[in-house]
Amino acid sequence: MKTKHVLTAVTTLAMLGALAACSPGGDGGNADGGGGDAATNCTNTIPKEDLPVVTMWAWYPNMELVVDNFNEENDEVQVCWTNAGAGGDAYDKFQTAISAGSGAPDVMMVEADRIATFQAQEALVELNDLGYEDVKDNFSEGAWKDVSVGEGIYGAPVDGGPMGMIYRTDIFEQYGVTPPTTWEEFEATAQAVKDAGGPVFASFAANQPAATTALMYQNGAQPFEYDPANEGEIGINLNSPEIKEVLDYWSGLVEKGLVGTEDQFTPEYIAGVIGGDYATYLSAAWAPGYLQGAGVGEGADAGVWATAPMPQWDANNPIAINWGGSAFSVSSQASDPELAAKVAFGVYADQASLDDGWQNQIIFPLNVNVLESPEFLDYEVPFFSGQQANKEVYVPAANAYEGMTYTPIGQFYYSQLTEQIARINEGSATGSEAADALQEAVVAYAEEQGFTVK
């Protein structure tokens, strides 16, 4: 298969829009973002005007502080930062620049599950020989795998979403239950709470396919195989026994009324979280920041939240999983890729920026220098009433996480998984039936785009 056929396919795919796979981004900020390849639309002030400038699009809420920290400390290059919108808004602008052949920034903030799509369009620069060796020990193998496509590194990791089970201590105390350690216990505990007149235990949300994909990995599934070195080939295994077991399990919980089926990240869902409609929230380390930003934990539900490790299929062989995470990638339109790589690897890597990020619940940092620091490990998280959640839950999960395989057709896969979870939730398909339909749809799409499915 010719490479250009794949590039055409993923260009079409990228224009379908965003299904973001991490915590909500910034406020959209300076959204014009025009002229990304010229240092003329800087949101920040460049203090050292005699140095070369690298342009960057990024939407972390504290990005202006991060860029100021970098520029003040750096005597080789300066960053011109623009907030071109968060998530899908930024990707749409980046896609337009890719198609036009100009207008992209030198460095682009990209969620891990988007990297393969842009890499397939030759829109990103491989970083293996541009500073990766100097910083590789600062991150885990799982963090690097998430920003890799085949053997190539295409992003500098910044934040991630190691998963845990957030739960309401008041509900658990009221019904005399403890945090389940296995999915078998999860179901039994949910049943006990329901039988006693309590709320549902969680929500199996159709609009969060990335979280469900993480649950598949936790059961040992390998949904995709993809390496651009094997030109045009892609492995798709979405109806494996491991995936069917996961979807059948959640289908069973839905059928028994043990979990809800509400979409997450909606006002209605947040109202339910505050009101005690759910005993748990299976989510990532960024969730406390998101929940507090949405008003959770400020009223009647203040002081009732805690977190525990994710339930496992086999408690003796736990598998850590991750939901979300972003990196800085170098655009193929960068005029000086080596200088741009210095920015990608160096920005949001200094202690002051990392500390501001995690202390203000903006990021869960993946830099091991932070993960191993006593200040971070022993931090008593206010949202969790002083629980040392990093030490107890999120750092062990981050350290044990082995990464995922992302592909250029990832967004189509997410859209199809969303449809299949909706079928499960409305009772029109079992988990196994949904997995078979998912496999059929994604294989057909991949073949239509010119991939050889193996």
Give a verbal description of the structure.
It contains 19 helices and twelve strands. Strand 1, helix 2 and strand 2 form a beta-alpha-beta unit. It is globular, with a radius of gyration of 22 Å. Strands 1, 2, 3, 6, 9, 10 and 11 form a seven-stranded mixed β-sheet that branches. Helix 5 (128-135) runs parallel beside helix 13, helix 10 (241-255) crosses helix 19 and helix 18 packs antiparallel against helix 19 (431-448). It folds into two domains: 3-161 and 323-394, D-Maltodextrin-Binding Protein, domain 2, CATH 3.40.190; 162-321 and 406-453, D-Maltodextrin-Binding Protein, domain 2. With 454 residues, it is of the alpha/beta class. The longest helix is centred in the last third of the chain and has 18 residues, at 431-448.
* Tally of helical runs: 19
> How many angstroms separate the termini?
14 Å
Form type: globular
> How many discrete structural domains?
2
Structural class: alpha/beta
- pLDDT under 50 segments (min length 5)? 1-5, 7-37
Q: Averaging pLDDT over every residue, what do you get?
A: 92
Strand tally is: 12
* CATH topology annotation of the largest domain: D-Maltodextrin-Binding Protein, domain 2
Helix content: 40-55%
Give the percentage of residues in beta strands: 5-15%
Indicate the CATH architecture of the largest domain: 3-Layer(aba) Sandwich
CATH class of the largest domain: Alpha Beta
Radius of gyration, CA atoms, in whole angstroms: 22 Å
State the major sheet. 7 strands, mixed
